[in-house]
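Input sequence (584 aa), recorded before submission:
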Amino acid sequence: MSVLTYKGGDFYLDGEKYTIISGAMHYFRIPREYWFDRLLKLKECGFNTVETYTCWNLHEPTEGAFDFSGMLDLEAYIDIAAELGLNVILRPGPYICAEWEFGGLPAWLLNYKDMNIRCLDRTFISKVERYYRELLRRVVPRLGTNGGNIIMMQIENEYGSYGNDHEYMEEIARIYKDNGVDCLLYTSDGASYYMLSGGTLPEYPCVANFGSKPEENFKVLDDFRPNQPRMCGEYWCGWFDHWYEEHHVRDAKELSSLFKDMLDSGASLNFYMFHGGTNFGFMNGANYYEKYEPTVTSYDYNALLSEAGDLTPAYFEVRKMIERWQGKKLPELTVKNSEKAAYGRLELNERCDIFTALPLLSEPVHTTAPKFAEDIGQYYGFTMYSTVIEGPREDWELKFDAVHDRAVVFVDHKYRGYFERTRHEESIAVPLKKGEKARLDILCENMGRVNYGSKIMDRKGLKGIRFGLQYHFGWDMYPLPMTDLSTLKFERFGGKTEIASFLRGNLKIDGEPCDTFIRLDGFHKGVVFANGFNLGRYYNDAGPQKTLYVPAPVLKKGDNEIIVFETDGADDNFVTFTDTPDLG
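Predicted structure, token format:
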């Protein structure tokens, strides 16, 4: 039994004083085959607890249909932690932020246009309650109060940075309790009075999230809520990267020193992140303050374990600090880094261009005015907008009322340029003489929904396509979620490609596969698939990330199908598999 309680400034586990030393690792960002390895590394670093969010958008990808299999098998993840003697802090949201697509909310919620999220809107609550019923029936048997290892569960997530509807917060707690949750509940927010006031409930302990100045931040927490334990719910040991930015790093000794200061002050804490992992597929989120800023594929986060699960200098520094704080040595490490392989240069010698692929992957939806992708049930990936324009017409420039998020333009199957939300706009005109026609195709990429702040209701696609002031009507919209590429028909190919295309090659591996990293130096923008598994996005023209992590479990001995979907045209058709990551 692992029952967590608190009295005054102390936590108690089964009646004994307890300091929580936790690390965040999200099961949905880590290949299932590596869960044991990553959790064992947490344990051998001296931690006693693992923290994870749950991802509503992957668990209920279409409304009413649930998935808890493979990398989403939360029960198995919790059970592995129990096997290793680790307690669990669970953060079920429903909103999780986490630099994750739409903050973990399912995109189909956007079809309820009159619904307000994250407040006491009865339609929203009904959707949350259905998800929680499915989730919590798997969780409740694993609560510490039922002999399991889940010691705490969070109510909502950093709610005070978004709203102040305390009735909504109480409703989330009510749903927990109605479904049998009786472990310690808590809230977490930034260490500011307005956030703590908006996001807390008086009957539950609250924790503060920050990455520096622990005494200053704890003073705010102590003043706001005296006579409860000090805890940093998210000790930000690094940060995430956006495209166009520099890669974030942090000094390991400075990180571990602040950690020791918190322990010495009697605080508990949770490292965010202990191991970040990867935003596989189309699951990266985005920020929008002055402009739209999508997050890169890697979620390395400068964490104690690298994206590939390697022990970093910070891992060893933090482990030494735990030994000093405990006053004794930890057992010798048994964990090690995974073997990496440089498989070398691979020619992608087959191609299927986007216009050949369209009818193989999608059925068009005809619409008079271009719609947002959600309006046709298209939630992730790409959408092609196709039409025919007729002459005579002057050379008015192509314009949009909204580009969410990146639109690549083709005229008569030839690349003409791209528009990118809040950042880049081409000058494209299509003058036509009397009797002339031209086909216009616009490939729109959803680069990740906003996961934090006031612009979170982030619909994707194109609206208001016009030439000058004149709107153009009559469109075919092709949804391209790219969940299954098996219907594509490839032809032999070599050299550069000038339009959006799927390029395929065969990576032959002798022996058991190893972790590796793929470089795409001759490519510009797109997505990579290994044996059908979506490794995520690359954007060489933006950086900082220059390689994608390829975990060994998605590869196999013998032949491996590698497909690159390049949106802008590639300068050559070779990629390189290296044993070293390059995050910029």
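Checked by second reader. DSSP finds ten helices and 32 strands in the chain.
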